[in-house]
Amino acid sequence: MNNWLSRLLTSSASSEPLSEQARRTLAQWAALPDADLGRAHFETRYVVINTEASGLDLDKDRVLAVSAVGVDGGIVAPQDSYYAVLGEQPVSALTGLLQAAGKAPLVVFNSAFNRTMLERALEEHLGLNADWLWIDLYFILPALFPERIERPARLADWMSSFGIETFQRHHALGDGWAIAQLFLAAQARALAQSALSPRGLAELERSYRQYRRKV
Amino acid sequence: MTAIAADLLVGASTDFLRNFSPFNRMEPEALAFVAERAVLAFHPRGSDILTTEMGVPRHFYIVQRGKVQARQTGATAVTEYASLSLGPGECFPIGAISAQRPSTNAYVAVEDSFCFQITDEEFLQLMQMSPVFHLFCTQYIASLLNQSRQQLQTTFSQRAAEQQTMTTPLGQLIKREPVCVGPYTPTRAALEQMNAEHIGCMVVVDDEKHPVGVLTQSDLLPRVILAGFDLERPIGELMTANPHQLAATASAYDAALEMATHGVRHLLVVDAEGRIKGVVSERDLFSLQRISLRQIRAGIENAADVGALKRASKDIRQLALNLIAQGIGAEQLTQFISALNDALTRRVIQLALERHDLVGIDFGWMSFGSEGRHEQTLSTDQDNGIIWRCPEMEAAEPIRQRLIAFARDVNAGLAGCGFPLCKGNIMAGNPELCLTLDEWRSRFGSWIREPVPEALLNASIFFDFRVLYGNERLGDQLRAWLNKIVKGNSAFLRMMAGNALQVAPPLGRLRDFVVEDDGTIDLKKSGARLFVDVARILALRTGVDSSSTAQRLRQASVKMGVTADEVAAIIDGFHFVQLLRLRAQHLESEHDGQTDNRVDPDSLNELDRRILKESFRQARKLQLRLKLDYQL
Questions:
Q1: CA-based nearest residue to A102, from A179, A202, A183, A28
Q2: pLDDT tens-digit profile of B101-120?
């Protein structure tokens, strides 16, 4: 409760009226059609979202930088990516993220942290409560590749299992690039297991979470 | 901000590429060109990345992580290696993409692999802008050519040996050491050995290696399983004694005769002392007979006029009928027919070209419909057209008139060889079907924009095009354009899907089959076409270049998450329907009847009836999938 209240207070304290440009971007984003969650992977653009925060404490720490990497039809293209430091201009950093992500289904690693941090930042700076489909590789990967690691594990463990490297660890885009590669592998395996669409992946994640709760 | 992110990722790709030749030696702007355009994709272990069947490669790949194996496919090996592993930093294909032809290798991911890829156009641009990369590719191709020259010589000597055909001595046909046991061997041990060695025939010999009996797989059901034979008893009590044998010096022809006379599938080959040398099977002999295909082909290629081709076309028909009688599968059979008909058509075109001067005109002869899909049966009429490119600064109409005159000549020649003129006038001699690349694009484009029933019908015939003679690149460009346009137009695909679902498989609720008034099923309209129509839509949706139904299904299924077993069952169903069509046509031509595609299910034996029912179920499954995908 305390947490909720403090956020409400800070947000009202720091919320200056949004600039004309930011409002226009927000309106454009809101007008985008919703993604069709039943389409096959090869017809879907997913966006891998990652954040960089001042620490790991959900209550105290803040988002420092955000990144997005598009995975469109099973292809990662460097041109379809986004990275911004919030710094002095959090509004433009976050509206930029919205433009890059559109309404695509989002892929994260560890949504408990990344999603929470990002949603809070979006609400605080843009007053936005977005209703996205989030797919969390933290659960999807052990569900799809139990022969590699049979329980939810750290990003570093999955990277070393697949031999994936990146140009900079703990950097929003550096890790995002690695997560995007993991997601490419996950899509291919999901096809073989009949999770054919974003909705299929979401269902897989849900049933895996239920299964983890039981064991 | 986006620029920063792209720069970071491009930088990461650049750093990766710099570790490998030729990228480490490449001009900075060329390296930047690759790194900016290279996109990353994943290929799970065991998946095909590029095969011959996929046609002209659309991408150039650089392995980022994992292992990709290049395997020789096709009849003759081009290089000295049978397979080659490619690891991080290595690229493929080089020869095929430079020459804009299908790859002779199959590239398969043997580990979970990530590959960068650039498009074929970007590859060609890179060749132009980077002397280092150009040299790298040409040296690579030169080394291949050198290898292939040596290979060609061995192939020639092999072919010379094959020419002996049915006069080949049996001794040369033996592929492996015979697997033998003594007559006192317990049956179980003998069967275990048969199983382990994957052989269909076990030879029983005495101490001097003289054959005293055989046991074949087909003996197992009546003599072992149904008879409840005790496996601990010796094989001598079970075998067929006094097996058929021939000397190693006897010919393949003698063996074929012996097999036909006695109705056996295996023959023992013995040396001068009567000792076992090996086993020859019916299949070994069949592989020899394929050379007669080659002979028909030579007859076609050397034909001096349409009269000679007419005889060749009768040979093709006769051969097809013989092969049906021998029980060859539908896929191989239609491929034979298609290959020979292609050769025949090419020869008719060449003969016509002697009378029509088309030098300097860039054109391709297109086939549509079943011919375009490589799925001709014995009664296929002509479906063809011309695609051409008008040279700059020249008037189009005079060229078109010359092409039409030439095409009418070819149409008449083909009719003379037994390909009836198309009743719907889908023929290259029709000015409406002698179009430039741009005109074809706008024709196809108008059907896609306004998918009225007639446009959808046209799409189902013309979208199965391929270039059979002339500049194939024109056809490739049209295909690439078509796939791109259709992919972004799900409304059109939905209309196509609705159209494809109009005919349901003739499966009844109460009876096995729903038949028409005359008690028959139309195997084309309510059989083969169901598979063909869905395959076309899946190919367009997934950007598959191939025009053959089986290839379309196989390649599209990978992207759709359909398992290999599932797709194999669907394709088997399609082929069985095709086989029944061919068989029906075979019977009718023997009785001089009208060749059509009707079969009376009551006339089929129990087994065929069941398989037919299963085939229709597969068609229904395929349709159901389409229904779900497009919510129809």
A1: A28
A2: 888 889 999 999 999 999 99
Domain count within chain A: 1
ipTM: 0.90
Minimum CA–CA partner of B13 in chain A: A78
| pLDDT band of B160, cuts 50, 70, 90 | very low
Angstrom distance (rounded) from CA B589 to CA B310: 17
CATH topology of domain B2-151: Jelly Rolls (2.60.120)
Q: Which of A44, A66, A82 to mutate to test the interface with B (most CBs of B within 10 A)?
A: A82
Residue B34: closest C-alpha in chain A: A78
A-B contacts (CB, under 8 Å): 92
Query: In a 3-state reduction of DSSP, which class is residue B172?
Result: helix
**Choice among A163-167, A202-206, B144-148 with the minimum mean pLDDT:** B144-148
Concatenated DSSP letters of B394-428? S-HHHHHHHHHHHHHHHHHHHHHTT-PPPTT--ST
Give the range among A55-69, B78-92, B522-536, B612-626 with minimum mean pLDDT. Answer: B78-92
Nearest-Cα distance to chain B for A5, in Å, is: 33
Is the Cβ pair B5, A184 closer than 8 Å? no
Q: Which of A45, A82, A83 to mutate to test the interface with B (most CBs of B within 10 A)?
A: A83
Smallest CA-to-CA distance from A143 within A158, A131, A156 is with: A158
- Nearest-neighbour CA in chain B from A73: distance (Å): 9
Cβ contact A74–B1 (<8 Å)? no
- Same CATH topology for B170-286 and B498-630? no
Cross-chain residue pair B8–A75, CB shorter than 8 Å: no
Rounded Cα–Cα distance for residues B546 and B475 (Å) = 12
CB distance B212 to B206 below 8 Å: yes
3-state secondary structure of A21: helix
| Per-residue pLDDT tens over the stretch B532-572 | 999 999 999 998 988 899 999 999 988 888 888 888 888 88
CATH topology for B170-286 is CBS-domain (3.10.580)
Contact check, Cβ <8 Å, B4/A93: no
Q: How many CB atoms lie within 10 A of CB A114?
A: 25
Mean pLDDT of B30-55: 94
- What's A141's domain CATH number? 3.30.420.10
CATH fold of B498-630, please? Four Helix Bundle (Hemerythrin (Met), subunit A) (1.20.120)
Q: Confirm or reject CATH 3.30.230.20 for domain B303-484, answering yes or no.
A: no
CB contact under 8 A, B8 and A79: no
User: Is residue A23 a part of any domain in this protein?
Assistant: no
Q: Please report whether residue A63 resides in a domain.
A: yes
Contacts of B56 (CB under 8 A, 6+ apart): B96, B97, B100, B101, B102, B120, B472, B476, B545
Is B1's CB within 8 Å of A196's CB?
no
CA-CA distance, B81 to B99, in Å (whole number)?
A: 21
Q: What is the distance between the alpha carbons of residues B34 and B138, in angstroms, rounded to a whole number?
A: 18
The pLDDT of residue B142 is: 65
Question: Is A204 part of a structural domain of the chain?
Answer: yes
Domain layout of chain B by residue ranges: 2-151, 170-286, 303-484, 498-630
> Does residue A92 lie within any of the structural domains?
yes
Please give the Cα distance from B393 to B397 (Å, whole number): 12
Does B41 touch chain A if contact means CB atoms closer than 8 Å?
Answer: yes
Nearest chain B Cα distance for residue A188, angstroms: 6
Q: Which domain holds residue A192?
A: 37-214
